[in-house]
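ugh ok fine here u go
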Amino acid sequence: MSDGIVWAIGFVGLAAVLGIGELLLTGTFFLVPFAVGALAAAVASLISPVAGIITFFVASTAAFFALKPIARRLDAETPNPSGVGANRLVGESGVVLEMVPGGPSQTGLVRIGREEWRAESSSAQGLGVGQSIEVIEVVGTRVIVEAR
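structure:
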């Protein structure tokens, strides 16, 4: 096999890996410009390996700038996922099941809806059993609450 064919096969493989990587990554058009550049380089490398390398950089740059406005528009249309996952609890009310001490990093237990969560008080004051609370923030696997 000639050098050009070997380079072409390598660029096609690179394009495939980058295409699969794009599907696995969150984000918009992060690896696509490089995959496009690799496909163009595969064709150009049949002329010469140097032409393939130059084409890879030129085509990747051109694809990047061509896709950038589309990516920006798609990202702007994506809704803010603040109400997804545990963040859906922000603003919800609940009740204290186990005293929530007022100190930092000291937790108690609260019930929000049908779920029980470890909770920290947002102030220096503790929260007693049976007291109504409101979730103001979710940090990791615990909620930050204040008296209601």
